[in-house]
Specification:
single chain; 9-stranded mixed sheet; 6-stranded mixed sheet; 4 helices; 15 strands; about 20% helix; CN hydrolase domain-containing protein; hydrolase activity, acting on carbon-nitrogen (but not peptide) bonds, in linear amides
């Protein structure tokens, strides 16, 4: 499986602009699977008003996503009945293959309901599962994916942080991810945002880590782009 992890500028509340970015990345990247950051479709702003105004049901996704010729793993704000979820949906030419809902929520994500399943999918003969951002701090989230037979853990993230905290956390993210790799033996692929919003900054990293914890592909800090790696079945 040839996988691409997309590091993007943050887009808040403009689904059409987000889809434009997705289609541009898909056109440029020769891959089997493309991964985008946490809540990328609508933007990550977990306030009740923003979530209510921008959430989508999985049968309301933009029809233009069917133009993506690869398997697409996309972070979004999901509405299901009266509940909201921080979700990563798996699409094949616009067809929903399934979704993962973030299990471990931060204190600032009380608007969301936590997920309770760890589905595993397959692309180009390689089984993969998903955790979302803060999930990576909890061994149980990655362990559930590994127990289902996955070889790859996809990690959409959104680490737009206050400027005084971001430099401390930038290397720490991969330190935490390597713990999950050591415990499970999986590859780990993360996609994050970059740029500045008010007093916050996104430093990533967007990268691919092999089962030894080595960075085999990475998007440079402060740039947009795609980290691409080949993962054998």
């Amino acid at each position: 499986m040839r996988v691409g992890a997309c590091q993007t500028a943050e887009i808040l509340g403009d689904i059409d602009a987000a889809v434009d970015v997705i289609l541009a990345c898909a056109e440029q990247a020769d891959v089997d699977l493309l991964l985008f950051p946490e809540c990328f479709l609508q933007g990550y702003l977990p306030t009740p008003s923003f979530v209510r105004d921008h959430a989508l049901a999985l049968d309301e996704l933009p029809v233009r996503l069917a133009e993506v010729p690869h398997t697409l793993v996309l972070g979004l704000i999901e509405r299901s009945g009266a509940r909201y979820f921080n979700t990563a949906v798996v699409l094949d030419r616009g067809r929903v293959l399934g979704a993962y809902r973030k299990r471990f929520l931060t204190a600032g994500e009380s608007v969301f309901t936590p997920g309770d399943t760890a589905p595993v999918f397959e692309c180009a003969g390689v089984r993969f599962g998903i955790n979302i951002c803060y999930d990576a701090q909890f061994p149980a989230a990655a362990a559930a994916v590994a127990a289902a037979g996955a070889k790859v853990l996809l990690l959409p993230a959104q680490n737009m942080m206050p400027r005084d905290r971001a430099p401390h956390w930038q290397p720490r993210h991969n330190e935490i991810r390597r713990l999950r790799i050591e415990e499970t033996g999986m590859w780990l692929v993360s996609a994050d945002v970059t740029g500045v919003r008010d007093d916050r900054i996104g430093l990533g990293p967007t990268c691919v880590l092999d089962p030894a914890g080595r960075v085999v592909a990475e998007v440079p800090t402060g740039t947009t782009g795609v980290a691409i790696a080949e993962i054998e079945p």
